[in-house]
Amino acid sequence: MNAEEADAPRAVIVISSHVARGSVGNRAAVFALETLGYPVWAVPTVILPWHPGHGRATRIVPETEQFAALMKDLERAPWLGEVAGVLSGYLGNAEQADAVASLVAAVRERNPRATYICDPVMGDAGGLYVAEPLARALRDVLMPIADIATPNRYELEWMAGAKLDDMRSVIAAAGEAGPATMLVTSAPAMMAGGTGNLLLTQSAALLAEHRIIERPPNGLGDLTAAVFLARLLDGQPAAKALQSTTAAVYEILARTAKRGGDELQLETDAQSLSHPMAMVQLRHLLHPGRDRRA
Asked: Which of 22-36, 38-52, 90-104, 275-289 has the lowest mean pLDDT?
């Protein structure tokens, strides 16, 4: 590593939920990024004892003014030039979106090459699990300024206002969603009994797919966004970043499921983050831009 590489920005600001027990939100993203060599500034949007899916949980959300003040402190931090990326996930309320957007603007002013990934955490196959004003803030405030967004298919359905039951409809909705690069998780797969991650860029449509594991633990979306960001910051091209991210997350999921774990066991399977061995099928799909030119 030369001096210029050593001085290059490497820190990532991760803005998401914090749980005392489990591997979701910041707990998943921070572990993954730091394991892969990226220092993290972790900002909790809400504090919980565990993921609410495990049962009723106390929810502590910072007061709006206090949260905004903390974010302003980060904007003025003398170390802001260290930041190479921002990842936002689960928010505690709609008002937090404006503070996130302001921080992203400040990071870009210091480092125009910084990457902002928005993981618009709002729902799943059962529908929205956040208040609709928060879902609208994610869609209208943060998605438009993101370099990359990582919704699951059901979140993309809500933003598109339509069911997305096939690959053509998912690709079309992703192309209209805002960011130039979209990584859609839980996408339809071409292999029987499978699921996929669809990556749509301005020049490519790629699908990485693997078999479905029933009743997976929470945190897969948080982990996917963090690992994908790390791969891009490492300089990996889109196809390699998608395939290696999908392989790492799937491998950790499969090993956790085999042990019967109710949370992703990242500390046990840390090696899978950097050197996954799982086989993932990568498909190159017809890009909608090429379809329009045909």
From this structure: 275-289
